[in-house]
Amino acid sequence: MFRVPSSLTKEGDAMSIMEILTLLLVIFAALSYIDNHYKRK
Questions:
Q1: 5, 23, 29, 36: most buried, per Cβ within 10 A?
Q2: Cβ–Cβ contacts within 10 Å for residue 11, how many?
Q3: How far apart, in whole angstroms, are the C-alpha atoms of residue 29 and residue 41?
Q4: 13 CB contacts (<8 Å, ≥6 apart)?
Q5: pLDDT 10s digits, 1-41
Q6: Closest to 20 in 3D by CA, of 3, 32, 35
Q7: Within a 13 Å sphere around the CA of 24, how many CA atoms are in the beta-carbon half?
């Protein structure tokens, strides 16, 4: 699932940073959802 970092391509570091931030946001949202789900039980 891992791709070659965009910083190694002509796109530059900006795209790579955005991809990392997006992944972190998705992971954080998933962990928060799971945590809240199990707290209800």
A1: 5
A2: 13
A3: 19
A4: 6, 7
A5: 556 555 555 555 666 888 899 999 999 999 999 999 888 76
A6: 3
A7: 6
